[in-house]
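Question: Hello, beginner here. Any chance you could explain the protein record under this note? Any guidance would be welcome.
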Amino acid sequence: MLLTLIQKEVLGQILSVRFYISFALGCILLVPATYILVEDYGLLQREFGPLVKEGFSVPTGGSTFYLNRKIPRLHILASGLDQNLSLRSHNLMHEGTYFGESQFVHNLLGDIFSHLDFVFFINIVGSLLAFTFTFDGISGERQQGTLRLVMAHPVQRTLLILAKFLGSYLSFIISLLPALMGVVLVLYLHPDVGLKNSDWVAFLWLLLFALLNIGVFFMLGLFVSCLTREPKTTLIALMILWVLLVLAVPNYSPFVAAKLHPIPAFHQVQEQVDSLTEGQRPPVLEQWAYIRSHGGDPRAFSPEEQREFHAIWRYHRSKFYAKECTKIWENFFNQMDIQAKMAQYLSLISPSATFTYLATDLSHTGIESEHAFRFATIRFRRRFMVKLDEYIQKTGDRTKLLHLDKEVAPDFVLPQPMVSEVISTHLPQSLALVVHFFLCFCGAQVVFIRSSI
């Protein structure tokens, strides 16, 4: 009986206009958008990649260094933080600033609009299509009178709801199969991508969470259809829910989290750091002592004496920054991390927001990846100063601060969590999608069993 009901539902959906609309939107939007992002990724790899190699780098003759990371490959599917995603941290000896490289956009018009990537398609287009497949699943047949005819047969109501869901859901997946195959072919055949095995595993998990997210919206559509008696009423209610779940909750959650757990502004932290560094007297006193011990006239210093004189200030300030100022930045980033996690948990009532967190962190373009990079730079700064201080204590040569040498720097290792680690870390988000689906399914069953036909 269940298979018969599913076959009936699938056949009805495939013969409907919405099936072909879903097929057309997948082919027109998803495949070309993926190809465009792949082309952009390849262009940036050729232009930006050779200039910034992953790890520790020092400009020629430079007195500072850079910490770099690669452009995440799966940015093609999940843009995530995009322009706010830091690929380089520089001037770590002094300013400690973090910045992206405007890495993903060449045409400024792109800043105005959202990126049409895989995550955007699933969250916006996919959720709306889910409602079009299900809004008249029960209310439409109830209005037309066909539901009464179906229930005249020995059909359990629980089986009917399950068949409605599976039939419409399978029809939707069938309509998107050509587009998904096109995305896979673009990722596999394009020479600029070069996905590794771990990237393909992450892509499979991303696809799994996307299907689960869409399944929640399908079940929600059937739930509301059971509550109403007319399809137009169902559609209006679903549009209101869509605005709340897809737009309102993800945008309001950070605001609520900021009120519940306020943190200082970035410029306030920078001012605190500046006030600490400006109040340091030891390098000034030692510089005066150096001037007195070398004739009392800095203008008469030899080039070697000039380098030693400037190295005094650089050494003290860099050591103080690595020891004291990084504590301020680390505390600030910890508070940012707490606020971000609070916003994530507040937005778990939205399957769309939950899927976005999962997708961006799987693709290394989300909050977790950004925070990991920033904390890695802080840890590197401390290790670097410890190693540099040992070198200076051993040789007495402070001029290494003016012309940095890679030999005195520790290795910069950016943690790259495995897919299994990301999944285990985001277990609450994964369970939230399952709970959303279960609640909608149970709600639809209860309402349909208790309602009149």
Observations:
- The chain has two domains: 2-41+113-248, 57-110+260-430.
- The longest strand covers residues 55-57.
- Residues 92-108 have pLDDT under 50 and may be disordered.
